[in-house]
Design brief:
The structure holds two protein chains of two kinds. Chain A is α+β, with helices and mostly antiparallel strands. Chain A has five helices and eleven strands, in the order E-H-E-E-H-E-H-E-H-E-E-E-E-H-E-E. Chain A has two domains: 102 residues, Pseudouridine synthase I, catalytic domain, N-terminal subdomain (Alpha-Beta Plaits, 2-Layer Sandwich), CATH 3.30.70; 114 residues. By secondary structure, chain B is of the alpha/beta class. The longest helix of chain B has 21 residues. In chain B, helix 5 packs across helix 17, helix 13 runs parallel beside helix 14 and helix 17 packs across helix 18. The chains are: A alpha+beta, B alpha/beta. The complex binds iron/sulfur cluster (SF4).
């Protein structure tokens, strides 16, 4: 909107709130913004709506620790004040952790995302090896990880190896960074599927919990948090 | 952080897991050890429907105002979760604490429509309790209900320990105080408590009454089993509408509710006296909230919830005395705060059209009339004070104001209905379409006008002048819809007309539940056993199973609906003193048959009986 100022909000979605779907999170924030009584900008016409743009949707059941949306405001407001006003109206599990002003001509959140970092945390299991160690090994020692990616329309063979930006061992878990967004999008489940296929491990016997830790913009390797 | 009742694995298996997690904005958490009474308030349908209900939100607010009570919400688990809970023996839980409601003191359900009856059993079953009140023991919660269906509670009476007759604002405190006192003094037993509770106004304890039947199946008598139990139960009514609990901090649902907005209940009751309408009778007299109260509610509710829409709720909003002032206030407020206003049930006239053009897009929206019947004769039978001229003039004004879509609601199967009355439905639609082409010059038209007619099938309800009326077989209803549809195709402007009719499958069953007696309970139980629930949802309704249930129990459903009832018949609901007298209803039944119109409460008092409450419109005469 003409004359509006863009802010980028960083939030956490944890605990039971991970069960909210993307549209429910959107509605949750629309109402929260109203409760916080901040000067958000609206579209014109009957049924005006807030000018918000959310970054990549998070799957139901996954906790997010570095989630983002952009909001346009009618007037300038101290980002810290904005953050605190929004954070004050959250429910358990939701936190607004940061707010900052964006330059006038910047791309919106949705278009800016290029990568996401996840934590893969294995649940208790009966194997006598450290699966996190195996997972990192799987990534490091194979020259190619070819999988079939199915979309609604097509099936295509892709090699995941060059698409995994990072895959490191971290205190019994694995941290993995993957392309995310509208250009290239690789879900961690796809990578895990390849791991199960290759090792022949039954996914029911080795379950894991997924966390999304951060969203990035920029072109790999030159990426930074949104 | 609270521990959820369902594991992550289960929640990931089911549709919309956020239905089951609680933790919504404005939901109330208390320390379970510091309260004397835990109440599970339940709407026996899925979360999105239940969270749209105002009664639940009002009682939630009212109960939780007490420091010694913690009230939590419960809704029907969707069939996918139902299956998992049955397989894994998981007990139904309150959304706030996530603890089993089996360990609560009360489970209270609101019954808004008859087709939720099997869902009542689902709740009781998943709570881990016996379905029949008679089989429950001292350590189990009291299972109670209220709401519109409680005005004939008999088909479901066996399932409840207590049924509350009337508006919840009046007698709950006395009930809770009695319970807490008996528990504290150690004198509590289920039997003693229920016996004592039965004297509290509005409290009906089904196990303390016994029906006797004549050889022809009608009731001989319906009497309490003890002398000190009242023989009639009096409907409870709020006298001062500005002095009630109201959900100024409504719980904001996580999953989008059917009505995703705040509701402003401007008044209760209705002056119109339509003879088919149960709500118009059982909520008498019309009582308004003051303008100041409503302005305050609106501001607070929007601020506290963050909702982006507000709707007015009442049976006939146009009859609210301060409507222009209230709407002026809301339009100004909502325009500034970018909140939408939704305006249901307004009579179409210049005032309402003006208001509507301010709050909605005229080109996209439609105007709605509910003539309920096509012919003036039929409208006189049902005492619908909406004349042919009202509809025509209203439509003309709407067309001139830029609208070109009209919706019309009708009922089929009304008492004394003839083929001529049915044919009058498309004829009225045609006349309105014709009016459009006559009124609006060709160059100004935005395409064709669109007149949509919908019919539902009439179901006679207790405490209405039509409680004596008969119903028809499913085939007959569909035949009537066909007459309307065929005749519509003969209309000159048929290309501008649309006709939709409801399915007749549930109509007959709804009729049986509405005016059935205690012998229906076994059928509902049997149907539940056979797998019936979510009957209000087309995809789950299974007529064949219901037919089997009636056959298995040897109950003849036709007895309840296929005969015009004699004027001296004792009805299963006659023990309820609704304060709208049977004498008045009978007089209205006679007037209906003579197509004689009765004045509405504003024009003159018809002496229905509700004046004993000494409030609302009755005090203006
Ligand atoms: S007593 Fe008269 S004014 Fe009051 S509700 Fe009945 S008919 Fe209307």
């Amino acid at each position: 909107m003409e004359g509006s100022i863009k802010y980028r909000i960083k939030f956490k979605k944890t605990g039971c709130m991970k069960f909210l779907g993307h549209l429910d999170v959107l509605r949750y924030f629309q109402k929260a913004i109203k409760r916080a009584d901040v000067p958000v900008a609206y579209s014109e016409g009957f049924n005006p709506h807030q000018l918000l743009s959310f970054a990549a949707p998070l799957s139901v059941g996954v906790e997010g620790y570095g989630e983002y949306f952009d909001m346009e405001m009618m007037e300038r407001i101290d980002p810290y004040v904005l953050r605190d006003r929004l954070d004050a109206v959250m429910v358990d599990g939701m936190r607004v952790i940061d707010a900052r002003t964006l330059p006038e001509k910047s791309q919106n959140c949705m278009a800016s995302v290029t990568a996401a970092e996840y934590r893969i945390s294995f649940k208790d299991h009966d194997f006598d090896f450290d699966p996190a160690y195996s997972l990192v090994g799987f990534y490091q020692y194979l020259d190619e990880i070819v999988i079939t990616k199915k979309t609604k329309k097509s099936e295509r063979q892709i090699d995941l190896k060059p698409l995994v930006y990072d895959c490191i061992y971290d205190k019994g878990d694995v941290l993995i960074t993957l392309p995310c967004g509208s250009t290239e999008n690789i879900k961690p489940e796809l990578f895990m599927g390849a791991f199960y296929d290759y090792t022949g491990i039954d996914p029911a016997e080795l379950q894991y919990t997924l966390f999304r830790l951060e969203l990035f913009g920029g072109t790999y390797p030159d990426i930074s948090p949104l | 952080m609270r521990k959820l009742a369902l594991s992550d694995d289960i929640l990931m298996q089911v549709e919309k897991p956020a239905r089951y997690i609680g933790n919504e904005v404005n939901s109330i958490i208390k320390d379970a050890d510091s309260v004397a009474l835990r109440y599970a308030i339940c709407f026996p349908d899925v979360y999105e429907i239940g969270m749209s209900n105002l009664a639940i939100q009002i009682l939630y607010e009212q109960f939780n105002r007490r420091d010694d009570v913690w009230c939590e919400r419960v809704f029907s688990p969707w069939p996918d979760l139902h299956k998992v809970m049955k397989e894994k023996s998981i007990l139904l839980f309150g959304l706030e604490s996530q603890e089993a409601i089996r360990d609560f003191d009360f489970i209270g359900m609101t019954m808004q429509y008859e087709m939720c009856y099997t869902n009542i059993l689902q709740i009781i079953d998943l709570a881990g309790l016996p379905l029949l009140a008679a089989d429950r023991t001292d350590d189990m919660p009291i299972v109670m209900s209220g709401g519109p269906c409680s005005y004939n509670p008999e088909p479901i009476a066996d399932f409840f320990d207590i049924i509350y007759i009337g508006e919840g604002e009046t007698s709950y405190d006395a009930l809770f105080d009695l319970y807490i006192k008996m528990k504290k003094s150690g004198s509590y037993s289920r039997k003693e408590f229920l016996h004592k509770a039965s004297v509290i106004p509005g409290i009906y304890v089904p196990t303390l009454y016994e029906p006797e039947y004549n050889a022809d199946g009608t009731l001989t008598s319906f009497k309490p089993v003890y002398d000190d139990v009242p023989s009639t139960v009096e409907r409870q009514v709020v006298v001062d509408m500005d002095d009630t609990a109201y959900p100024m901090k409504p719980v904001v649902p996580h999953v989008q509710a059917i009505q995703d907005r705040v509701t402003l209940e401007i008044m209760r009751g209705c002056i119109r006296g339509c003879r088919f309408c149960q709500a118009g009778m059982i909520y008498r007299p019309k009582r308004e909230r003051s303008l100041e109260t409503l302005e305050n509610y609106a501001v607070e509710m929007l601020k506290n919830s963050g909702h982006e829409e507000i709707s007015l709720s009442s049976l006939s909003s146009s009859d609210y005395s301060h409507l222009p002032e209230l709407l002026d206030f809301l339009i100004e407020q909502c325009d500034r705060d970018k909140v939408n206003i939704s305006l249901p049930s307004l009579r179409i006239d210049n005032f309402s059209l003006d208001v509507m053009s301010k709050v909605q897009d005229v080109r996209k929206s439609s105007i709605t009339f509910a003539p309920e019947a096509g012919s003036q004769r039929m409208r006189d039978v049902i005492n619908k004070g909406l004349s042919h001229d009202d509809i025509i003039n209203g439509s003309r004004d709407a067309f001139l104001g830029g609208w070109n879509k009209v919706k019309l609601y009708f009922m089929l199967g009304l008492p004394t209905e003839t083929e001529e009355d049915m044919r009058a439905i498309p004829e009225l639609g045609d006349e309105i379409a014709m009016l459009y082409y006559d009124t609006i010059p060709k160059v100004q038209r935005q395409g064709r006008c669109q007149v949509t007619m919908s019919t539902s099938f009439f179901v006679p309800k207790p405490f209405t002048p039509f409680q004596w009326a008969r119903m028809y077989e499913k085939e007959e209803y569909l035949h009537r819809a066909k007459i309307v549809n065929d005749h519509m195709k003969e209309m000159l402007n048929k290309k501008s007309l649309r006709y939709q009719w409801h399915q007749a499958d549930v109509t007959v069953l709804e009729g049986i539940f509405a005016r059935g007696d205690r012998r229906i309970a076994q059928v509902i139980m049997r149907a539940y056993e056979l797998g019936c629930f979510f009957d209000a949802w087309g995809e789950y309704f299974d007529l064949a199973k219901w037919e089997q249930a009636f056959a298995d129990c040897g109950v003849d459903g036709d007895f309840y609906i296929m005969r015009e009832r004699p004027e001296d018949e004792l009805f299963p609901w006659d023990f309820i003193d609704c304060k709208v007298s049977k004498k008045f209803l009978l007089r209205e039944w006679h007037n209906a048959k003579a197509a004689k119109v009765t004045k509405n409460c504003k024009e003159g008092c018809a002496g229905c009986g509700a004046a004993v409450f000494k409030t609302g419109v009755c005090t203006t005469h």
